[in-house]
């Protein structure tokens, strides 16, 4: 399993993504700001569309961190050979409009870093082996 971390800091806060390559699958954890959390879970595969679960936030609304996940997913989708799961949770206390406006660009910068890393991280696990219809476990 290969793992790495990337961060981007702009307008007073940092956004970080931990990337884990698990076999042919990817697990990304995007966090940042004053209260990192898991606000959304987004999944997709090379031939599977994005699907997202949004968890309730502290004030009764739902988290919108999947917007960040979607930016990154768009950049790496063609490099994903298995499935990809992205958890995301960035909260900046009393966030300013300037900080909101910077978020997509920060996610894009993270996506570029991930894409560059994936280009030099070949999938090293072989394909899983299954029994044929005529075979049974011994």
Automatic annotation (TrEMBL):
Query: Could you tell me which residue ranges the Prenylated flavin chaperone LpdD-like domain spans?
Result: 12-118
Pfam families with a match to the protein in the record = PAC_bac
Annotated protein name in UniProt: Amino acid decarboxylase
Source organism of the structure: Loigolactobacillus zhaoyuanensis
């Amino acid at each position: 399993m290969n793992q790495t971390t990337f961060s981007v800091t702009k307008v007073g806060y940092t956004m970080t993504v931990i990337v884990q390559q698990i076999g042919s699958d990817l697990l990304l954890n995007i966090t940042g700001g004053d209260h990192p959390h898991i606000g959304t879970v987004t999944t997709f595969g090379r031939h599977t569309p994005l699907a997202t679960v949004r968890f309730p936030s502290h004030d009764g609304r739902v988290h919108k961190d999947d917007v960040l996940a979607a930016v990154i997913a768009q950049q790496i989708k063609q490099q994903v050979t298995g499935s990809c799961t992205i958890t995301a949770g960035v909260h900046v206390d009393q966030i300013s409009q300037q900080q909101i406006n910077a978020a997509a660009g920060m996610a894009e910068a993270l996506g570029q870093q991930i894409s560059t890393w994936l280009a030099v991280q070949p999938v090293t696990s072989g394909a899983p082996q299954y029994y044929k219809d005529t075979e049974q476990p011994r």
